[in-house]
Design a protein that fits this description.
By secondary structure, the chain is of the alpha/beta class. 31% of the residues lie in helices and 9% in strands. It is built from ten helices and eight strands. The longest helix is centred in the middle third of the chain and has 26 residues. The two termini are 37 Å apart.
Length: 350
């Protein structure tokens, strides 16, 4: 959204006058031409009603009506009606509250270290090399990505001049991000609605929480999965709900975390994917949270609303920064890289 980015530019000029010019360059790239494929579906192989609700829900709003990720992610009346109420909350007397938007947003070149851009170029080269041989991507060249700048604005990082010198929006890694992030949004929306329906408390974690908080309610540009937690006490309730739901619309399977705890992979696809877990299929990961320390409940509860993309009904822990500090003890606010370093993940807290 160019208008939104221009407003952000004016704001950044006031608080960060030294990094205004790089944002100007980003706006110039975002205003560049997009490649349209008028005769292809928005996502190859996707259902016609590619909405942000349950699989049998209403049609998706038009792109013009969809809130931009630049906008303040205020909860709509519908989202408020669907959000957990006091009687649904796990902690007695606690209600979900609306998370105000934060100032950490987008991929400002002035906040990145050189290692980030070095890693990004390596990622670009990897995608280029695998583009024609990767079975998971066989439909990507012909998929329509014309709505990407509205639906997945975070993908613009792959069009930055630090990654690609070309002005075209059709570079392969940008296209891959656009397709996979729109699939992931659909999967997240369905999973979150499913958990709300079955009164299973959940909250975002790890990189998904990081994107929701630091990047103004968007997925991190290089992620192809979403991470969320439920209490280990709710695992059987989750299994019962999955086993009794005939219209869920997504394939799922059980796996184990690095600490050998149960976790569940829920895929965008309705039928079993051709790849094994971790091989790249778009999916949501549900991790079991073990209450190792009683004081951790104060970090998690009461859960609060933190809409993704302004409309996906997600929940975040009460003390987001406290949980991120535990996840990423070496830092997470800025100067981050793609392959670890300052954002090395700490799984020992779970």
């Amino acid at each position: 959204d160019v208008e939104g980015l221009q407003k952000l530019l004016e704001h950044q000029r006031l608080i960060h006058p030294d990094i205004a010019d790089p944002i100007d360059k980003a706006i110039h790239i975002i205003e560049g031409p997009e490649v349209h494929h008028e005769h292809e579906p928005e996502l190859a192989g996707a259902p016609e009603d590619h909405d942000h609700g349950p699989a049998n829900g209403d049609a998706k709003p038009s792109a013009e009506a969809k809130p931009s990720a630049n906008a303040e992610p205020a909860a709509s009346a519908e989202a408020a009606a669907e959000a957990p109420t006091k009687k649904d909350a796990e902690e007695p007397g606690e209600e979900a509250v609306v998370l105000p938007p934060e100032l950490h947003r987008y991929y400002n070149p002035g906040l990145m270290n050189p290692k980030f851009w070095e890693d990004a170029r390596k990622k670009r080269d990897e995608v280029e090399q695998r583009w024609m041989s990767e079975p998971l991507w066989r439909d990507y060249p012909k998929a329509d990505i014309s709505g990407c700048r509205t639906n997945a604005p975070e993908c613009a990082v792959w069009a930055m001049p630090q990654v690609n010198q070309t002005k075209t929006r059709a570079n392969k890694i940008y296209r891959k991000c656009c397709i996979e992030h729109q699939k992931l949004q659909k999967t997240m929306a369905d999973v979150f609605d499913f958990l709300h329906k079955h009164k299973i408390q959940f909250w975002l974690g790890m990189g998904t929480l990081l994107g929701a908080y630091r990047n103004n309610g968007t997925i991190i540009a290089w992620d192809t999965d979403a991470d969320l937690y439920i209490s280990e006490d709710d695992e059987q309730r989750l299994l019962d709900a999955l086993g009794s739901s005939e219209d869920f619309g997504h394939y799922y399977e059980k796996d184990h975390s690095p600490k050998r705890r149960p976790m569940y992979w829920i895929y965008y696809e309705k039928n079993q994917p051709t790849s094994s877990p971790g091989m790249g299929d778009t999916h949501v990961e549900i991790w079991m949270w073990k209450w190792k320390k009683p004081e951790n409940k104060q970090i998690i509860y009461p859960l609060q609303q933190c809409p993704l993309y302004g409309e996906i009904n997600a929940l975040c822990p009460a003390q987001i920064e406290a949980l991120l500090n535990k996840h990423y003890p070496l830092g997470w606010k800025s100067k981050y890289s793609l392959t670890g370093g300052r954002t090395t993940l700490n799984l020992s807290i779970m």
